[in-house]
From TrEMBL:
One of its GO terms (biological process) is positive regulation of DNA-templated transcription. One of its GO terms (molecular function) is DNA-binding transcription factor activity. It comes from Brassica oleracea var. oleracea. NCBIfam families: LRP1_Cterm. One of its GO terms (cellular component) is nucleus. It comes from the Eukaryota. This is Uncharacterized protein.
């Protein structure tokens, strides 16, 4: 099987569709769904709101270049 090398970072236009999701708490939540193509592969995903930026848990870190191991 041929192994694909994926770029470390990708910049691309994408359309994000707002969708309503049913939560386990019985309430509706909003998320964004998208599909993009990278290196000949299709990636699909749903982005869920984690709350306002000010509500991010202390100690939470965002890494611009995570480990590729």
């Amino acid at each position: 099987m041929d192994e694909t090398t994926f770029p470390e970072e990708v910049s691309s236009d994408a359309v994000f569709l707002c969708v309503r999701m049913s939560g386990t708490d019985g309430e509706s939540h909003f998320a964004y769904q998208t599909t993009v193509g990278i290196a000949g592969h299709v990636f699909k995903g749903i982005l869920y709101s984690q709350g306002p930026e000010s509500m991010i848990m202390p100690g939470t870190q965002f890494h611009e270049n995570p480990s590729r191991s």
